[in-house]
Structure of Glycolipid transfer protein:
Amino acid sequence: MACGSVWGLAPRARSRVQQWPRPQEQLGWESGGWWDVDCLGSPVFTPIKADISGNITKIKAVYDTNPAKFRTLQNILEVEKEMYGIEWPKVGATLALMWLKRGLRFIQVFLQSICDGERDENHPNLIRVNATKAYEMALKKYHGWIVQKIFQAALYAAPYKSDFLKALSKGQNVTEEECLEKIRLFLVNYTATIDVIYEMYTKMNAELNYKV
């Protein structure tokens, strides 16, 4: 997905009292993938981008086997729970979506941290503080010591904030504040959608806390 179109592809979150969104709406593979933020080009984001893409592919593969049965993400979890028995939820699209939501939460916390103005006062143009916060909130507890060290090493390759925002703007002549405002608007539905998925996992007792 081109970075310049990221703002127009925010997922359409639904009210908690409505039916859970269709997988292709909530995960965006019809629209070209709001989740596939190619402009996160720094090496620090490479494993997260790869994980998100891989898990989307796994979920779509399950959905494509029977779109009528898997009308919503909740349908997928319910069918797999019955299908796999005691192996569930550590299997199939249920497991893929569990890890996907964590990667999406990383992006959400990271972008929100930048919008909130959180920074290293000694190095205000670095985004290491923002990426570290996102990792600690979304992924760290699920990673073993080796994976944590790999991420910490990758942080040193994090881009400058100015370069990152320029990439998000895809060369458009916009001010930093204009770019941040677009991110804030994008985050409204993006955050709500992720929250809905987390809530679904809690209600269905599908969350796992093992480390990789």
About this structure: The two ends are 29 Å apart (CA to CA). Helices lie at 23-26, 46-65, 73-84, 92-115, 128-138, 145-154, 161-169, 176-203.
